[in-house]
Amino acid sequence: MTDKTLLDDCFLHDKDRLRHDEALAILKDRLSPVASRETVSLADALERILAEDITAPRNVPLADNSAVDGYAFRHADFETTGGFFRLQQRIAAGHATDIALAPWAAARIFTGAVMPPGADTVAMQEDCETHQQDGHDFVIVPQGLKIGANCRKAGEDVAEGAAVLSAGHCLRPQDLAAIASTGRARIDVYRKLKVGLVSTGDELRRPGDLMNLGDVYDSNHFLLRGLCAALPVEIEDFGILKDDAALVEVTLKDAASRCDVVLTTGGASRGDEDHILKALDTLGKRHMWQLAIKPGRPMMFGNIGASAFLGLPGNPVAAMVCFLLYVRPVISLLAGSGFCEPQGFEVPAAFDVPTKKPDRREFYRGYLGTDETGATVVHKFMRDGSGLITGLREADGLIEIPEEVTAIRRGEPVRFLPFSGFGIR
Ligand SMILES: Nc1nc2c(c(=O)[nH]1)N[C@H]1C(S)=C(S)[C@@H](COP(=O)(O)OP(=O)(O)OC[C@H]3O[C@@H](n4cnc5c(N)ncnc54)[C@H](O)[C@@H]3O)O[C@H]1N2
Ligand code: MOO
Predict the structure, then answer these.
(1) Reaction catalysed (predicted)?
(2) d(CA 233, CA 191)
């Protein structure tokens, strides 16, 4: 641990605060997965984290089958028959046959039906001619089909014994389809983490309540609840706490005894009415506080017993940025799917920032657009206030500006972290 980790002075210069990369390193270092396993039905497994490796117990598809509605034949018989086959059998999907094709014969076959023994090629019905003669049905298949045409091979999707998915993977609809295709009905996943949400501040009211002058609706609760919805967690709402040191302490103690993660907003800095830090120091251990980032400077991380404690700033923009940068990877790690860092890419800035303070990393609200040539550029939400929910609403990602940058000129590449890279929209 560096001696910057437990900073006790919120009036420090940024160069003395913990840098973003140092904060990430502490989170990775101090945490390990906590979630136990449970077995669930595939129907309940969406967005859950796989706790076992999945291999295919059998070929998918199980048998060679037709990719089209048409006529199945043995390619080698084309020469001798001139493509003129007598229809020997009819095979629909779900009605496999063990009758081998005679050398003079073809089978009427439908998409998904198992190829009859001996057949290796299928002609599409639109390309064939059929007729009857002497009470028999015949088909003329076209020239030029390659051996194996329109035939799907057993195991061509997944071969028996092949790896399908690994433990730690967060299950998407297409993953569930892959598991279902192997025949598994129940799988082992990690238990959902329990996350306790706490809002603090005398000024806060829940939407629907009456408001007095100076009151603020608790928008952060809904922000965090929504952000958590993209993660494998269950939420327990500990409501709004008044700025009362004893109440904050007793509630955090209770929350920590019941939850894997306690997530607070507000009261994170060192005002007379900010009690979160003191409660953390009394009940557990502080691992970091005061980061060299904007927004989100008073971000706090610690533990109260076995529970991870994450104290977010009260300003909504700082709360969301810190959730995406720190809380989401922490939850992901504790829940069994590793510390997930956002994907981003470089894109030219459609804005100027004449001066930026050095020594801190800044995250602007950004949205993609095109310039006059049609090239992709990123716009910055022009107002910087950390209380402006409008900027979060209008953005479709964050623009990440490193510590050493002191100005940005239009056209220069900047790193854009789309919200989709954080698993949200
Ligand atoms: N003297 C200093 N003042 C402040 C500093 C500092 O270093 N020295 N840091 C500033 C920064 S940066 C931030 S961010 C804020 C964060 O402070 P707190 O976490 O203690 O948050 P509060 O003071 O409780 O609230 C800040 C702001 O956000 C509103 N808020 C709080 N909770 C909610 C909620 N659940 N939903 C919506 N809005 C909420 C609150 O009403 C305040 O307006 O401190 C700066 N000050
Ligand atoms: O940096 Mo605060 O985190 O102003 O919102």
Answers:
(1) adenylyl-molybdopterin + molybdate = Mo-molybdopterin + AMP + H(+)
(2) 9
Q: Is the CB of 199 under 6 A from ligand 1?
A: yes
Q: Does residue 273 share a domain with residue 411?
A: no
For residues 128 and 210, membership in a common domain is answered with no
pTM of the model as a whole: 0.92
Residues 336 and 168: beta-carbon distance below 8 Å: yes
- Whether pLDDT at 2 is above 50: no
Residue 6: inside a domain? no
Cβ atoms of 396 and 418 closer than 8 Å: yes
Q: Which of 398, 254, 229, 222 is nearest to 322 (CA)?
A: 398
Share the mean pLDDT of the chain: 96
On whether the CB atoms of residues 176 and 40 are closer than 8 A, the answer is no
Structure tokens at 334: 């504790």
70 lines ligand 2 (CB under 6 A): no
- Among 152, 179, 211, the domain boundary falls at 152
Tokens read off for 295: 């927004």
ipTM rounded to 2 decimals:
0.98
Convert the pLDDT of each residue in 347-404 to its tens digit.
999 999 999 999 999 999 999 999 999 999 999 999 999 999 999 999 999 999 999 9
Percent of the chain scored above 90 by pLDDT?
Answer: 94
From ligand 2's centre to the CA of 2, what distance in Å? 23
| CA 242 remoteness from chain centre | 35
Strand pairing category for 121-124 and 193-200: unpaired
Residues 51 and 111 in one domain: no
The CB of 92 under 6 Å from ligand 1? The reply is no
User: What 3-state class would DSSP assign to 42?
Assistant: helix
Domain of 377, in residue numbers: 345-422
Using CA atoms, how far apart are residues 178 and 157, in angstroms rounded to an integer? 9
